[in-house]
Amino acid sequence: MTQAGPDEEGAPRALAQRIANGIMSAANVAATAWILLLMVLILSDVIGRNAFLAPIAGVPEMVKYSIVGIVFLQVAHTHRNGELIRSDGLLGLLTKRAPRAGAALDLVAQLAGVAVSLMLAWAVWPKATRAFERGEMEGIAGHFQMPVWPFLTIVALGSVLLAVSFLISAVHAARKVAA
């Protein structure tokens, strides 16, 4: 019986990581396109409001929910690229003096991120399904209404993607601890 070599063992993990990175990148691109569309919508509303005295109905509601959706579509990609805001002065100091201890602290932080992200997804998902089942809407009846569930679903799925990003970082930190 032959054992798999290091390249063969890491292949499924590398493929899973590439797929996760691809999904995070696609979500980031979708959020960026959403921002551009939102800018066009706001500009059109301002022009319509001032030039023609005809604002576009529902722009404030769309902007309010879009901001949340955009953040949760981009947060996993931001973390994956190491651009998520984090206070790592102590971690940097510890890593310089004791690399394995620094990696252990980073591992704990990444695992805490996994836990918090999954708790957020767990808390929001039932609200998304309930909003879908009840047909919950935002806005003023007869003027403008839009469904709430797509935005709640984006929050839940974005939180799961963030948990995956934290998990990938946790695996890298665990390798440094074990080295």
TrEMBL record:
<dbReference type="InterPro" id="IPR055348">
    <property type="entry name" value="DctQ"/>
</dbReference>
<dbReference type="InterPro" id="IPR007387">
    <property type="entry name" value="TRAP_DctQ"/>
</dbReference>
<comment type="similarity">
    <text>Belongs to the TRAP transporter small permease family.</text>
</comment>
<keyword id="KW-0997">Cell inner membrane</keyword>
<keyword id="KW-0813">Transport</keyword>
<keyword id="KW-1133">Transmembrane helix</keyword>
<dbReference type="GO" id="GO:0022857">
    <property type="term" value="F:transmembrane transporter activity"/>
</dbReference>
<keyword id="KW-1003">Cell membrane</keyword>
<dbReference type="GO" id="GO:0005886">
    <property type="term" value="C:plasma membrane"/>
</dbReference>
<dbReference type="Pfam" id="PF04290">
    <property type="entry name" value="DctQ"/>
</dbReference>
<feature type="transmembrane region" description="Helical">
    <location>
        <begin position="148"/>
        <end position="171"/>
    </location>
</feature>
<comment type="subunit">
    <text>The complex comprises the extracytoplasmic solute receptor protein and the two transmembrane proteins.</text>
</comment>
<protein>
    <recommendedName>
        <fullName>TRAP transporter small permease protein</fullName>
    </recommendedName>
</protein>
<dbReference type="GO" id="GO:0015740">
    <property type="term" value="P:C4-dicarboxylate transport"/>
</dbReference>
<keyword id="KW-0472">Membrane</keyword>
<comment type="function">
    <text>Part of the tripartite ATP-independent periplasmic (TRAP) transport system.</text>
</comment>
<keyword id="KW-0812">Transmembrane</keyword>
<feature type="domain" description="Tripartite ATP-independent periplasmic transporters DctQ component">
    <location>
        <begin position="38"/>
        <end position="175"/>
    </location>
</feature>
<feature type="transmembrane region" description="Helical">
    <location>
        <begin position="103"/>
        <end position="125"/>
    </location>
</feature>
<feature type="transmembrane region" description="Helical">
    <location>
        <begin position="22"/>
        <end position="43"/>
    </location>
</feature>
